[in-house]
Amino acid sequence: MEEKTCPSAELFFKREFKKHTGIKDIRFVLAIGSGKGGVGKTTVSAILSLALKKAGYLVGVFDLDFYGPNLHLVLGVNKKPMVEFGKIKPVSSDNIKILSLALMIAEKEPIFMRGLMASKLLQELLQKVEWGPLDFLILDLPPGTGDIFLTMLDFFNPEGFILITTPHKLALSDAKRTLSILKEKMVPILGVVKNMADFFEDETSFQDFLNEQKLNVLFEIPVLKELSKTENLTEVFESSEKQKFLETIAEKVLDKVFRIK
Ligand SMILES: Nc1ncnc2c1ncn2[C@@H]1O[C@H](COP(=O)(O)OP(=O)(O)OP(=O)(O)O)[C@@H](O)[C@H]1O
Ligand SMILES: [Mg+2]
Q1: Are 138 and 64 in contact (CB under 8 A)?
Q2: Closest Cα partner for 163 from 151, 145, 136, 137?
Q3: pLDDT on residue 76
Q4: Ligand 1 — pocket residues by CB below 6 A?
């Protein structure tokens, strides 16, 4: 008898999909942003990198928060990127490639940079970095919609923006401003990640926000109590229950990506 696989299982195993970028070697750019700072962009970028890697995809993550780079900490990475013939090779850790200014500049060094310098630095990095083949390049964006954000939009023209927010009114207010820029620039929004979903009680504001913006929740992340003991998400997501969670969110994101024509 022919064995039937359920649709989600089919989705889960690595599948070829259309190259959506004009960038050499990179199949899809997923931009992870919010309006407000501290709502979980870096956390979600790291969780998504673990989820898509688990689903069999080649993943790179670019820490674009030049003023507060910390993606390397949540992925437990502390190696310097190699520079060969003027090209920067991102650090590879547990099959995820990472590029962050934090890995190039000592922690105690202050990062002084005016907006213009930051976008110049971004342009320089973009010219020099060699990711190698990637199915997904995840961009961990800085808070707000400043120079780095705008340069990123111009360069990557991302096919998928994931908006991170908590259900708190302050976060939603900032998120609306970011969304208005994304709409003007016609950036497709894959959905909203409701972070720390179980911590906030005011569901009405959040639902109103979704209705008003005509957006859906892509997935929710509860408060991860483990983060009070460690910052390393690779450790937090080791348990079989958390591995299952990674599978669920990878399915949700892949389902959206595969539907893009
Ligand atoms: N679901 C969660 N459960 C528990 N703690 C969380 C959760 N999401 C994020 N945090 C914690 O909240 C803080 C801010 O998260 P994170 O750094 O991911 O936000 P961010 O949006 O990237 O911030 P920034 O705007 O500064 O870049 C961190 O200490 C992180 O560990
Ligand atoms: Mg961050």
Answers
A1: no
A2: 145
A3: 94
A4: 34, 37-43, 65, 68, 143, 195-196, 221, 223-224, 227
**Residue 37 and residue 177: Cα distance in Å, rounded?**
13
Ligand 1 nearest-atom number relative to CA 222: 1
Minimum-distance ligand 1 atom for the alpha carbon of 43: 18
Residue of the nearest CA to atom 18 in ligand 1? 40
The pTM score is: 0.92
Supply angle C-alpha 106, 108, 114, rounded to 5. Answer: 85
Q: How far is the CA of 142 from the centre of ligand 2 (A)?
A: 6
Which amino acid residue places its CA nearest to atom 23 of ligand 1? 38
CA of 65 to the centre of ligand 2 (A): 6
In DSSP terms, 83 is beta-bridged to 88
Single-letter code of the amino acid located at 39? V
What fold, for 26-259?
Answer: Rossmann fold (3.40.50)
What residue spans define the domains of the chain? Answer: 26-259
CA 193 to the chain's CA centroid = 11
Q: What is the C-alpha to C-alpha distance for residues 167 and 161, in angstroms, rounded to an integer?
A: 18
Which residue puts its alpha carbon closest to atom 31 of ligand 1? Answer: 227
Task: Say which amino acid occupies 176.
Answer: K
Residues paired with residue 28 on neighbouring β-strands, in sequence order: 136
The predicted-structure confidence for 68-121, as pLDDT tens digits, reads as follows 899 999 999 999 898 889 899 999 999 999 999 888 876 566 666 666 777 788
